[in-house]
């Protein structure tokens, strides 16, 4: 337990003064809280029954003064405590964010966005709540109970003992309640999560639902989950229904005992009436915090679990290390693979097996092969998203490991099949890799990517917002923005990973034309399924299960009569057949 | 400086949903209608239970202060005190039972209303058109069905009963105070308006600052979520440092919002304490004076002191309820907006049930417009015979999808008739039409669950054997058998367990299992390797056998196989015929085919 808090110390300890201030204020608050029943007792016993009416103004003044102090102390206690929490969380968040920026693809391959998000939101917040509230609440409960018990025992030891006889019972109920209510809350959250998933899938898959007219089926599946949520919730509220009134009842028992025995003591003259009245107050100052005690104890264990999950991010290995002896020399773009073998972490099959290639600066390499044959892996090793198991990759004759990671990647432009765009303007999206680019350069890049015309047709032109709440673009349009984004960083090496597959033939034609222009003077890797996209490459590599099975120029490969030829025949048979049939 | 500014604004996340709305009676009444099914039993039980425990809470202080202290203890009447103790114990027992029932039934009531409301909304949304889903993001629909409805939960569970309880309790206490001592009551009640003021005005001020926090927080979370999803792009473009700068910006403004809200919140309790203290001082000073005058007994003084401590809770809760109500206004407005959305096609009262469909489709002088400005189809007549395979060819916006949507009756024509087997679709029950028509989407959605369940989505009552048979016929069994757990392999939408080609085969198996008379194929352009494309073509041929099929196709290899091809432009048929006929004609279709190949060569 302490171990986790020790590891996270650097994020909250620098702000310990706030916590200290909060606790000191808390001690004042608690002390003054216990004053109220005492004032009540003095008023009844001394002022009223002892007929010392001249005390009234002094008591009133003292009381108001004390309450004023308490108000200020309460403010300090709460604000300083909150500040301690949010300030710590501020630095914790920053550390988490920076760490996440540095973690490699390997981490993201295995982590679900939803899981990381829940750590960044729920766990960070849980931790904040503990820092702001949990710890000082623990202190408050202890202080308040001790002080109140002290006053009670001062007034009357037997009455204090008898009224507090309910404490063990209450404690048992409180702890039992806490033990069963938390799993129940988890069940509610889980049931709600299930319902949420159901609805989310239904909406995302609405086209599929409608296409098979499965609406009724979907409604039934939804009602199952929704009914489960209702039932789980009702079951949990039955726990409250059992325990809350019980806790209150136990407190009330103590009040009844107080009335009976305390009344008897007053009749016998063993207790002052004012002391009895003060007791009615003090009882709740002890029992109230006790009812909260289970909750606070639970906060400890929850924040421990949250802390653990946060550490799982903060302590994650960064496996792509940026070597200190870094190379910043300008990159011209010659790429060499020597016997590169790659296995993705957690997978048995090799993604690349002894791949060798030479791409002098400015040449174009085509990569073709079935899904999973290793085409993308080639480019991921080049940009050091993964480290090869054996073999080496050189850029401009130097191993990629010798380059500053960011410098290397800034010189490699990537366009992926699924073009991810961010929630910002079209302009900022294009300038993503080069935020300082001038407006002119941005428009120029858009023009070269055949994107300018449709951008000008959007409502706000280059200032149109994209993303979740922004405008929806078609696959082809997104793709062209992604291409403009890659062009704008003016990379020495350009990687087009299936960049034009999700668009129709006409758009592809336009994009291809644009790309031919862009590729000039850059080393380009084209990954594609269509022969037409790669046939002009200087060298074409045909991959199969991580191995290069054929290589050469388009014409050579056709002569080879291997895999490439087979793909070619399938893709071009139509043309020959169609036009031949027609000509006859 | 200019440089920093740049990075602080590189992403834009907008918050477009109002968190609260002004109070609106009509809307509240509409909400309260959902209580109706429960007014006979659940609601009366809950209210009775609430009244019982509230009355106990209300009267016990009088018994302790005015009765026990003033009579029993002052008179040293032990039997009376005993009776009082027994009486109060019994009352506490009854209150215990009342509380138990109240909490229990209030939650049953609330959950049932929430369930009904959510069912109503979900079922309604299912019937809305494609257009509705095209114009709304999936996230915003999800938020309404889940979060907005959940934010009504508190209103329907504790809210309504608590308001009643607090009003009863407050009035009861005030009445009792006046009954005991009007003078002291008036003096003490000065704090009530103060407390109400704190509970509404001060709290509203505080709430506003928490809204700012919420907006900042949601911005922060949006960015975190997006930055995780786009991490590969960020790293590929080496933008880690720039993003960290941006994050520091939103992290700071989030921190500032929290700080401001905490600072305001921290004022709340001191104000409450002070208002309580003022009440107490009045009680101490004026109460003691009244005792001196002989107006008030010590017991009454004690009773007052107990009641003074009981004011704050109901007032605070009422203030909170009011906030809750304003938030419920915003949420319910959004919910009702969806519920008021009308489905595009309405069923006639005397609509007939189509028992079976042969698949003979006719468009008779059909005109269709999505809205007054955009006429998708000016005047279209065409016939598709039973069992025929027809391809619709044309550019985006030529009317291909509209034709498909009219056949499955996602829309009704503006003028003219669409007939299947000679029956005007407007006369038939929507479900009976759609259940005989399947649309095969090639970018099909994969639901989380195993492969078996995903295929079975086509026909939920199909047996395991039937599912496997369907997979076998379309040739999907090959890849399924290779998966680690075969048909029991768990898949999900974002998981990359299945490739694009495998998804398509899966959607064919689904459609085959549904066994429709009419099949509409919406071919997607997606990344599939050539070998897989061949397999898909084969599977398609098997799927189309003995069915009327309408294909919205892009690939020439698919189009060529059709019995008849319609070349469309602006909702009009330019020409139609078989592939050979159209090639012979050297018309639009010929040009289209030629330009495709020219493009391939030109690249």
What features would you describe in this structure?
The complex is a heterodimer of chains A (584) and B (603). With 584 residues, chain A is of the alpha/beta class. Chain A has a six-stranded mixed sheet, with helices on both faces. The N and C termini of chain A lie far apart (85 Å). Chain B contains 22 helices and twelve strands. In chain B, helix 3 runs parallel beside helix 7, helix 7 runs antiparallel to helix 12 and helix 9 packs antiparallel against helix 11. Chain B is elongated and about 120 Å long. The model of chain B has no long low-confidence stretch (mean pLDDT 86). The interface between A and B is large, with 158 and 167 residues.
CATH architecture of the domain at 24-179 in chain B: Up-down Bundle
Average pLDDT, all residues of chain B = 86
What's the total helix number of chain A?
Answer: 22
**Which strand order spans the largest sheet of chain B, edge to edge or round the barrel?**
6-9-10-3-11-12
- What class would the helix/strand composition of chain B place it in? alpha/beta
CATH class of the domain at 24-179 in chain B: Mainly Alpha
**Portion in strands of chain A:** 5-15%
Largest sheet of chain A: 6 strands, mixed
Structural class by secondary-structure content of chain A: alpha/beta
> Biggest sheet of chain A, strands in spatial order?
6-7-8-3-9-10
């Amino acid at each position: 337990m302490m171990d986790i808090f020790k590891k996270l110390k650097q994020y909250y300890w620098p702000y310990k003064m706030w916590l200290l201030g909060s606790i000191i204020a808390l001690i004042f608050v608690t002390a003054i809280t216990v004053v109220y029943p005492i004032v009540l007792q003095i008023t009844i016993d001394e002022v009223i029954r002892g007929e010392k009416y001249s005390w009234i103004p002094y008591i009133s003044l003292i009381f108001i003064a004390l309450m004023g102090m308490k108000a200020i102390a309460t403010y300090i206690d709460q604000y300083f405590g909150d500040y301690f929490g949010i300030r710590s969380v501020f630095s914790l968040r920053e550390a988490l964010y920076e760490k996440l920026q540095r973690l490699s693809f390997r981490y993201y391959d295995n982590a679900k966005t939803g899981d990381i998000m829940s750590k960044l939101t729920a766990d960070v917040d849980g931790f904040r709540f503990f820092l702001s509230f949990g710890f000082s609440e623990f202190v408050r409960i202890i202080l308040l109970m001790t002080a109140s018990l002290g006053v009670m025992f001062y007034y009357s030891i037997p009455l204090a003992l008898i009224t507090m006889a309910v404490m063990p019972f209450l404690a048992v109920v409180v702890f039992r309640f806490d033990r069963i209510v938390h799993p129940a809350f988890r069940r509610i959250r889980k049931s709600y999560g299930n319902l949420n998933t159901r609805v989310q899938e239904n909406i995302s898959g609405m086209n599929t639902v409608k296409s098979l007219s499965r609406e009724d089926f979907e409604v039934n599946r939804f009602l199952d989950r929704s009914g489960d949520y209702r039932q789980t919730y009702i079951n949990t509220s039955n726990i409250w229904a059992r325990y809350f009134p019980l806790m209150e009842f136990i407190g009330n028992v103590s009040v009844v005992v107080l009335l009976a025995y305390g009344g008897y003591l007053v009749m016998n003259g063993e207790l002052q009436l004012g002391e009895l009245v003060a007791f009615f107050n003090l009882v709740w100052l002890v029992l109230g915090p006790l009812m909260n005690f289970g909750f606070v104890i639970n906060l400890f264990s929850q924040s421990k679990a949250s802390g653990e999950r946060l550490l799982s991010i903060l302590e994650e290995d960064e496996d792509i290390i940026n070597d200190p002896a870094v190379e910043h020399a300008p990159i011209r773009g010659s790429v060499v693979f020597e016997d590169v073998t790659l296995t993705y972490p957690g997978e048995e099959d090799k993604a690349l097996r002894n791949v060798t290639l030479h791409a002098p600066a400015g040449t174009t390499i085509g990569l073709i092969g079935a899904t999973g044959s290793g085409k993308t892996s080639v480019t991921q090793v080049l940009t050091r998203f993964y480290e090869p198991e054996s073999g080496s990759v050189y850029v401009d004759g130097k191993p990629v490991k010798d380059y500053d990671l960011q410098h290397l990647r800034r010189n490699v432009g990537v366009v992926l099949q699924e073009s991810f765009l961010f929630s910002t303007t079209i302009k900022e999206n294009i300038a993503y890799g080069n935020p300082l680019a001038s407006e002119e350069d941005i428009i120029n890049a858009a023009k070269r990517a055949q994107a300018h015309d449709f951008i000008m047709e959007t409502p706000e032109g280059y200032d149109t917002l994209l993303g979740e709440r922004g405008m929806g673009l078609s696959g082809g349009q997104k793709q062209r923005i992604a291409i403009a984004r890659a062009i704008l960083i003016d990379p020495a090496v350009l990687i087009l990973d299936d960049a034009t597959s999700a668009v129709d033939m006409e758009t592809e034609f336009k994009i291809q034309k644009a790309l031919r222009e862009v590729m000039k003077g850059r080393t380009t890797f084209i990954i594609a399924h269509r022969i037409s996209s790669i046939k002009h490459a200087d060298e074409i590599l045909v991959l199969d299960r991580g191995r290069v099975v054929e290589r050469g120029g388009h014409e050579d490969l056709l002569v080879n009569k291997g895999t490439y030829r087979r793909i070619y025949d399938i893709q071009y048979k139509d043309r020959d057949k169609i036009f031949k049939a027609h000509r006859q | 400086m200019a440089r920093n500014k740049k990075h602080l604004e590189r992403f834009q996340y907008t918050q477009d949903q109002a968190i609260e709305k002004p109070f609106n009676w009509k809307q509240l009444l509409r909400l309260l209608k959902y209580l109706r099914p429960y007014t006979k039993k659940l609601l009366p039980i809950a209210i009775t239970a609430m009244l019982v425990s509230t009355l106990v809470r209300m009267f016990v202080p009088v018994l302790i202060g005015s009765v026990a202290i003033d009579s029993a203890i002052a008179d040293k009447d032990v039997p009376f005190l005993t009776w009082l103790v027994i009486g109060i114990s019994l009352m506490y027992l009854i209150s215990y039972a009342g509380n138990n029932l109240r909490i229990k039934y209030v939650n049953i009531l609330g959950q049932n209303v929430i369930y009904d409301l959510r069912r109503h909304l979900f079922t309604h949304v299912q019937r809305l058109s494609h257009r509705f889903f095209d114009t709304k993001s999936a996230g915003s629909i999800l938020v309404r069905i889940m979060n907005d409805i959940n934010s009504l939960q508190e209103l329907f569970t504790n809210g309504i009963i608590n308001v009643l309880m607090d009003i009863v309790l407050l009035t009861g206490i005030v009445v009792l105070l006046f009954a005991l001592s009007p003078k002291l009551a008036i003096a003490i009640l000065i704090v009530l308006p103060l407390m109400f003021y704190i509970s509404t005005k001060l709290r509203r001020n505080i709430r506003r600052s928490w809204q700012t926090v919420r907006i900042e927080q949601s911005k922060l979370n949006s960015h975190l979520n997006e930055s995780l999803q786009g991490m590969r792009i960020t790293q590929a473009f080496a933008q880690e440092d720039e993003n960290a700068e941006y994050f520091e910006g939103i992290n700071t403004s989030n921190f500032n919002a929290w700080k401001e809200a905490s600072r305001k919140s921290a004022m709340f309790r001191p104000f409450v304490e002070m208002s309580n203290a003022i009440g107490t001082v009045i009680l101490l000073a004026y109460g003691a004076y009244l005792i001196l005058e002989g107006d008030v007994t010590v017991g009454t003084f004690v009773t007052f002191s107990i009641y003074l401590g009981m004011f704050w809770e109901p007032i605070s809760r009422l203030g909170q309820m009011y906030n809750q109500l304003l938030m419920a206004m915003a949420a319910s407005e959004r919910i009702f907006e969806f519920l008021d959305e009308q489905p595009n096609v309405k069923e006639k009262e005397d609509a007939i049930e189509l028992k079976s469909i042969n698949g003979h489709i006719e468009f008779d002088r059909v005109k269709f417009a999505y809205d007054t400005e955009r006429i998708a189809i000016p005047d279209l007549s065409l016939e598709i015979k039973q069992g025929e395979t027809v391809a619709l060819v044309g550019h985006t916006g030529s009317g291909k999808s509209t034709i498909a949507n009219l056949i499955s009756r996602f829309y009704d024509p503006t003028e003219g008739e669409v007939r299947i087997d000679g029956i005007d679709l407007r006369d038939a029950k929507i479900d009976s039409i759609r259940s005989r028509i399947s649309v095969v989407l090639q970018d099909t959605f994969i639901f989380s669950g195993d492969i078996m369940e995903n295929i079975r989505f086509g026909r939920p009552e199909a047996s395991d054997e039937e599912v496997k048979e369907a997979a076998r016929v379309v040739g999907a069994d090959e890849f399924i058998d290779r998966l680690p757990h075969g048909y029991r392999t768990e898949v999900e939408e974002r998981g990359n367990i299945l490739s694009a080609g495998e998804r398509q085969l899966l959607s064919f198996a689904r459609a085959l299992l549904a066994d429709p008379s009419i099949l509409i194929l919406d071919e997607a352009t997606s990344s599939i390797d050539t070998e897989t494309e061949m397999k898909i073509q084969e599977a398609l041929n098997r799927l189309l056998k003995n069915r009327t099929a309408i294909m919205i196709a892009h690939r020439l290899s698919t189009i060529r196989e059709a019995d008849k091809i319609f070349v469309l432009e602006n909702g009009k048929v330019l020409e139609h015929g078989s592939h050979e006929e159209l090639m012979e004609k050297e018309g639009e279709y010929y040009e289209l085919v030629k330009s495709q190949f020219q493009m391939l060569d030109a690249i």
